[in-house]
Amino acid sequence: MNGAPLARYEATLQGLARKDRLRTLAPRAGLDFSSNDYLGLAASRRLGDAVAAAIARGTPVGATGSRLLRGNAPEHEALEADAAAFFGADRALYFGSGYIANFALLTALPQKGDLLILDQLAHASMHEGAQAGRAEFKLAAHNDVDAVEDAITRSRAEGGIGRVWIAFESLYSMDGDRAPMENLVALADRHEAFLIVDEAHATGVCGPDGRGLAAAFKGRDNIVALHTCGKALGASGALVTGPRTLCDYLVNRCRPFIYATAPSPLMAVAAREALAMLSDEPMRRVQLHERVAFAGRQLAERCGVVPSGSQIQPFFIGDVRRTVAVAAALQARGFDIRGIRPPTVPEGTSRLRISLTLNVDEADISAMVDALVEVLASA
Ligand SMILES: Cc1ncc(COP(=O)(O)O)c(C=O)c1O
């Protein structure tokens, strides 16, 4: 093959490089200020031992098929039963990733003629699902309950009679702020709407026993939640929890669930053990919250940052080039902090995403803030 067929891809890559937006894969290095392993479970002894014991019992690595065929392993069912009990839901379904689960929910549940309103800062997987789905789809300004209500009122005035779906994150992955859950639930009640709540960054960290920010509304028949297993739970995959009818519907109509090999039974074992750890080891959550408070104080006093109050702390820089330079300088000093640029975040809001986990202690946090102060003075 001559070079021509690849030329346009090359041109795109060169264009990204010119704008400082080229992404490359790098080996992990430095102190962890970027992972989502908030509770330090990914490399924990207990999670590893649970998987090792499962292997010793003969649990297979591969699921061997779709859940609807031979792939339905007892480990998946055990995880889903525990997850339903833990999150106080009728039923739970285990997906291979949060990305797929969000895409699946938004393409399978809202129907033609329905109205889907999505927070504009919700995760890319929700945007993809909303675009690919059959419902009419509107974006609402971030965390703006009035904007959501306006979209509903406008649609009704234009003759829309379908069901309304409101999709959002409970704790935002790039801003670390929380959704106005109570107001959204009240709004949903006023309009007989469904809520799809992505708890990716709240699961394990927020709510009683780490059950998330939707835990206060458990058991309602108009809330579907997504709990990813690859962040605070230290494993991978995602649990969708909600009313039994909707979960049964997904088993019948959700193409990414039906036409995919089920996740590894070993990963189901890990996710199940992680759920047990949330209840058994509450100190992890307490320690994380202490570290979040400590970092918030340090960053506020020494860098003028407004603390997000969560384990995700954005440090806004704005300019793409400077964001990349500051992140690189911090990495060179041994701190794994990533610069987040458009299109992941809106234009002009490039930032460092400082993630706090139990993989660092207070001394590490102080050293990171020292480095940040120094780097900012020279970058
Ligand atoms: C808010 C949010 N939802 C969903 C996902 C996707 O989850 P997963 O990594 O399990 O595919 C992510 C991952 O970055 C996320 O941040």
UniProtKB/TrEMBL annotation:
The lineage of its organism: Bacteria, Pseudomonadati, Pseudomonadota, Alphaproteobacteria, Hyphomicrobiales. The keyword Transferase applies. InterPro entries: Aminotransferase_I/II_large, AON_synthase_class-II, PyrdxlP-dep_Trfase, PyrdxlP-dep_Trfase_major, PyrdxlP-dep_Trfase_small. Its cofactor is pyridoxal 5'-phosphate. Residues 31-372 form the Aminotransferase class I/classII large domain. The keyword Transferase applies. GO terms for biological process: biotin biosynthetic process. This is 8-amino-7-oxononanoate synthase. Signal peptide: none annotated. Keywords: Pyridoxal phosphate, Transferase. It comes from the Bacteria. It comes from Mesorhizobium temperatum. GO terms for molecular function: 8-amino-7-oxononanoate synthase activity; pyridoxal phosphate binding.
